[in-house]
Structures are given as structure tokens and as C-alpha cells.
Write a structure and sequence with these properties.
Length: 394
């Protein structure tokens, strides 16, 4: 840490130039004594990245920021607050502490948190910021978390770990491809705690993760604004059985969809009629990540448009549904759309033999804020176009 960055002149300059081109700042002569232009530009870049992701940090004076990459890799406040509710007991160790966002929120729930971070400067920065917030129940250790756990005689109620994915080919990766290697050290983690919370990128396949892990009691799929942000794997030491899969959308309202793979679909119904006045449902990315498409329809009492189309329909609006809801205004054919002189709408393609950009060009469709043109397939196999108005975004 460069303490000169915390001087009033440096902080005033940073806060006054949040919208200034950082490249110009980095190349110009520093206006602040003992602080380089590059350091000022780095603080500005990181703080700007924190504005929406970490609003509490952004709004708090005298925060010291790490390199921008650390801000990109850290949990958001919204997800950190959610995962803090999953911790049990009084003590927790965060084995991959980073900038300290998760540790900060865990410390609101538990009496003692140990923050391990192998990068000494990042550990120092996290410890400094904790003092700014008056958080005194976090112990900061600039060590490798796994090595510390091997050497300490302490045990913890909860262990939290966020392993980083190592370079791997293809879209599917395994936990053994991450560092620290959770699989290699799983018995150690279980021996040292009652509960383990593992954060992974949403790219990790749920079935693959379950094959690698044991004693998984819950899998939380976290989404914000229809984008999956992370998977949380909860391991309880003595748990045996079928884990709960919990899709969570964290928007203005928290919405949760919970099921187990053993849940049976008894009465899946497909739509025979698509007409004006009915409501079309498109599941949030978190629901789609569960892979249990038919159970979604049964759970929310919706009819499905087509076996391979993850769109649903109802005569009513169910605002607890995690996803978009549209009111159907018209059912169109390609001929109907061609006859329109200047059709408008946001184009959505679901199980339809064309790409959105191709359809926009072909039919000369203009963008529209609230109207959507949904190109999809009906239960009888016919390609259809649904004109609809959005009722609910999330």
C-alpha cells in the first residue's frame, strides 16, 4: 500500500476526476506530490468499477482500492450479502479472501471471521478498509489459506472458498481444474468444519460438480438481471441424500425456486391455443441453469409451448415467477410480418431456424422499448411469431 494515496490532496483529486479519461491522467504529470500519475489513474479506474458493484465502498471516504482486476474478480455486495446467510455457527474462515467483500458480510453474521489472502498487499488493503468500516471481528492473515488450514489446530463452523479457474480448454471445466484444488483438499476442509461453502463460476456443470464433490446439501444458482453470477455449493459434514437445487434471482425483489432432482413431473401440459390476452413466461437464466424445464411449468402452473422450447403460458400473471412476463398482443405468420411497412420490436429467438440479426435485417424490424417479437415454435411444430408487450422484466 502507498499511504500517500490516502492524503487529502490525492483523495480529492481521485474523487474530482472519476469521469476523466484515465489514459490522459496516466500520461500527464502528476498533480499530487509523492503520488504517481499511474497510481492515481489506477485508483480512479478501480473506484469506477466499484460504483455499481460495491456501492457501500464507492460512497465511503478514504477507501483504498486494489488493481481493477481484483474489483472485477470480487463478489458484488448483493451476492456477498446473500451468501452470508448460508454461513452457520460463530466462526468462519475465508480461504481466498481477496478484497474482503465476502468477509465483510460474513462478519455481520458471525462473531469471528479469518480472512486469508496469499497476496500480502491485497491482504493489507482489505485490513485497512475493514478499519475504515469499524469492522473489528475479522482477523487478516497474509497466507495461503489451505496451508494455514493444514497447520492450524483451530476448527471453524464454516469454511468459505472461491477457487479460481485455471486455463482449460472448452466450456465445461471441473473443480479439479481450479486453484486452490478443492477436490484434493476436500477431506481436510470437511475435517476442519461443519459446513463448507464453495463459490464457482456459473459455467460449471451441476452434474459434473456433484460427481466431484460429496455431502452436497444445497446448490444455489445466483442470478442478477437475468445473468447467472455464481454457483454456491453447500457441503454439510454429515449430509447424505439428494441436494436441494435453489435458483435465486436478486433484483428489487428476491425470488427463489427450489427443487430436488427426484421431484416428479406429473401433469405437464402443452399449449393448444396461443392468442391475444394470454401471458407468455420466459424463465430467468438461474431457472434455466437448473435444467429442470418441465418442473418449472408444473411448479408455477404454466403450460409449455413446445417440448424443446423453454417458454410457458398462462391466463394469469404470477409476479412471483423469476423471469420475464409478456402479454400476447397478436400471433403472426411470416407473411403477416412482411406486410407491415415498418414493424418494430425487440427480437427474441427460441427454437426457431434463424438468428435474431438475420430476422431484423430480413423484416427491417426497428427497435422498440416495450414491444417484443418472439420467434418460436408451437407444440404442433409450426414456426410462429408472437407479438407481445412486456409486463415484468425480472
Amino acid at each position: 500500500m502507498d499511504e500517500n494515496i490516502l492524503a487529502k490532496a490525492a483523495q480529492d483529486y481521485i474523487n474530482s476526476n472519476l469521469n476523466t479519461d484515465v489514459n490522459q491522467i496516466a500520461l500527464a504529470k502528476s498533480p499530487v506530490e509523492y503520488v504517481s500519475s499511474a497510481a492515481l489513474a489506477g485508483q480512479i479506474t478501480a473506484k469506477k468499477k466499484a460504483e455499481k458493484k460495491l456501492p457501500t465502498w464507492f460512497k465511503t471516504a478514504d477507501i483504498y482500492y486494489p488493481p481493477a482486476l481484483s474489483i472485477e474478480q470480487t463478489s458484488s455486495e448483493i451476492t456477498a450479502s446473500y451468501k452470508a446467510k448460508l454461513a452457520i455457527g460463530n466462526s468462519l474462515i475465508d480461504l481466498t479472501g481477496g478484497f474482503g467483500i465476502d468477509a465483510f458480510y460474513f462478519a455481520k453474521q458471525l462473531s469471528k471471521v479469518v480472512h486469508c489472502e496469499i497476496n500480502p498487499e491485497l491482504s493489507e488493503i482489505a485490513a485497512y478498509n475493514a478499519k475504515i468500516f469499524g469492522t473489528d471481528n475479522i482477523v487478516f492473515k497474509a497466507v495461503d489459506g489451505i496451508d494455514f488450514l493444514k497447520k492450524t489446530t483451530e476448527t471453524f463452523d464454516t469454511i468459505y472458498i472461491d477457487p479460481a479457474r485455471r486455463a482449460a480448454k472448452g466450456k465445461v471445466f471441473m473443480l479439479k481444474d481450479c486453484t486452490p484444488d478443492v477436490i484434493e483438499n476436500l477431506d481436510l476442509l470437511i475435517a476442519k468444519s461443519q459446513r463448507i461453502i464453495i463459490k464457482t463460476a456459473p459455467l460449471l456443470d451441476i452434474s459434473a460438480g456433484l460427481q466431484e464433490l460429496k455431502h452436497v446439501s444445497e446448490i444455489h444458482i445466483i442470478s442478477i438481471k437475468n445473468e447467472c453470477k455464481e454457483l454456491l455449493w453447500v457441503i454439510d459434514k454429515d449430509f447424505e441424500g439428494e441436494p436441494k437445487i435453489i435458483a435465486v434471482t436478486l433484483n428489487l425483489e428476491e425470488k427463489i425456486f427450489t427443487f430436488q432432482k427426484t421431484n416428479k413431473v406429473n401433469n405437464l401440459v402443452f399449449a393448444n391455443t396461443i392468442k391475444k390476452g394470454l401471458y407468455l413466461y420466459e424463465p430467468d437464466a438461474a431457472l434455466l441453469k437448473t435444467g429442470n424445464f418441465n418442473y418449472i411449468g408444473q411448479y408455477y402452473k404454466l403450460v409449455k409451448l413446445h417440448p424443446q422450447t423453454q417458454l410457458y403460458m398462462s391466463t394469469i400473471i404470477e409476479n412471483k415467477f423469476p423471469g420475464r412476463i409478456f402479454e400476447i398482443k397478436a400471433l403472426l405468420s411470416s407473411g403477416d410480418l412482411k406486410k407491415q411497412k415498418s414493424p418494430s420490436g425487440n427480437v427474441i429467438v427460441r427454437n426457431y431456424p434463424a438468428k435474431p440479426e438475420e430476422l431484423v435485417k430480413k423484416y427491417k424490424i426497428k427497435a422498440d422499448k416495450d414491444v417484443f417479437l418472439i420467434f418460436t415454435k408451437a407444440n404442433n411444430g409450426e414456426n410462429i411469431i408472437i407479438e407481445a408487450q412486456i409486463i415484468q422484466y425480472y
